[in-house]
């Protein structure tokens, strides 16, 4: 299967999962370390498939894989903290746009990857499309409308930008590291060692008493009428599916190009929001405006052009 098709499906699932992430960190699990703990712990369940896929890679790759998984756990924690502190649409677009910039830089420096002129045009177009999405008026963003409809609090705290930058940096390091690991090991084996590394790292969150208390609260039986905690499991399944597909796309193709494809995540959202604005504006109170519609259309077209130049 083409890495492009896998990446498209991956970012579709991740787009939905990110929406739920904002809801959960604001309303259900308000401690970002606790949310990262449960996410990585659930991800560690992939280790159950060890008898079929796990291979002993040698001591070097063993510790390398665990370290890569730990970096992923850090990236996830920083993402949740950025979401908790900031506005969802802005945070997701910022991290999504910055991660491929870091990935491209690392790929050139460490893997000596070279891109053709058409691929560079495609990468720049995808990043430009993400920038246009980021510049959409906040109150007219589809993500903002969905968040408001779900009654998600939009309390903005300080420090969101710093956490978002370091989250993007950690994600880029993780993806480049796993691509390096995939060059010498089987996909399934690397993925499971990574998940084990992430699960082991988040155990460190149990050291601090405050964080430990927040984590233990997750496992308490939910009170009557508070069934939203089950959304955590559902969202982690959805996000894990997207993450597995994203990693498989990296295994098949270029880590920088797969990361640049993250613009598709916002293209999906923009297309749906534009259709809703015309057909059912009351559903999410998405106001139809010629100026905003043209801005969205420009973003979709530029992202589409970027995809075309990458695929040719």
Topology, pairings included?
Elements: H1 3-27, H2 32-43, H3 50-53, H4 59-85, H5 88-110, H6 117-134, H7 142-149, H8 160-182, H9 187-202, H10 209-218, H11 230-252, H12 255-260, H13 263-279, H14 290-311
Labels describing this entry:
312 residues; mainly alpha
What does this molecule look like?
By secondary structure, the chain is mostly helical. It is 75% helix and 0% strand. It is built from 14 helices and no strands. The chain has helices spanning 3-27, 32-43, 50-53, 59-85, 88-110, 117-134, 142-149, 160-182, 187-202, 209-218, 230-252, 255-260, 263-279, 290-311. Helix 2 (32-43) crosses helix 10. 49% of the residues are buried.
Count the DSSP helices.
Answer: 14
Tell me roughly what share of residues is in helical segments. over 70%
Sheet bearing the most strands, described? none
**Basic shape:** globular
- Element-by-element helix/strand order: HHHHHHHHHHHHHH
The parts where pLDDT drops under 50 for at least 5 residues are: none
Give the end-to-end Cα distance, rounded to a whole number of Å.
Answer: 17 Å
């Amino acid at each position: 299967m083409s890495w492009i098709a896998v990446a498209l499906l991956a970012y579709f699932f991740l787009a939905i999962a990110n929406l739920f992430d904002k809801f959960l960190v604001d309303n259900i699990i308000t401690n970002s370390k606790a949310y990262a703990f449960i996410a990585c712990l659930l991800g560690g369940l992939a280790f159950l498939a060890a008898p079929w896929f796990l291979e002993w890679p040698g001591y070097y790759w063993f510790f390398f894989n665990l370290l890569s998984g730990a970096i992923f756990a850090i990236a996830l924690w920083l993402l949740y903290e950025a979401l908790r502190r900031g506005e969802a649409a802005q945070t997701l677009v910022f991290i999504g746009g910055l991660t491929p910039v870091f990935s491209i830089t690392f790929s050139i420096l460490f893997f000596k990857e070279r891109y053709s002129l058409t691929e560079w045009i495609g990468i720049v177009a995808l990043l430009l499309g993400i920038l246009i999405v980021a510049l959409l008026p906040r109150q007219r963003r589809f993500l903002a409308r969905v968040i408001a409809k779900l009654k998600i609090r939009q309390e903005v705290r300080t420090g969101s930008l710093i956490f978002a930058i370091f989250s993007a940096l950690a994600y880029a390091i993780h993806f480049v590291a796993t691509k390096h690991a995939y060059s010498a090991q089987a996909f399934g084996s690397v993925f499971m060692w990574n998940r084990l590394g992430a699960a082991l790292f988040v155990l460190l969150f149990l050291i601090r008493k405050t964080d430990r208390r927040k984590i233990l609260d997750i496992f308490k039986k939910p009170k009557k009428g508070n069934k939203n905690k089950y959304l955590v499991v559902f969202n982690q399944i959805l996000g894990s599916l997207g993450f597995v597909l994203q990693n498989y796309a990296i295994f098949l193709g270029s880590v920088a190009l797969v990361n640049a494809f993250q613009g598709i995540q916002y293209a999906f959202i923009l297309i749906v929001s534009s259709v809703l604005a015309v057909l059912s504006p009351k559903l999410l109170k998405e106001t139809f405006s010629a100026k905003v519609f043209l801005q969205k259309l420009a973003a979709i077209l530029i992202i589409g052009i970027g995809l075309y130049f990458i695929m040719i």
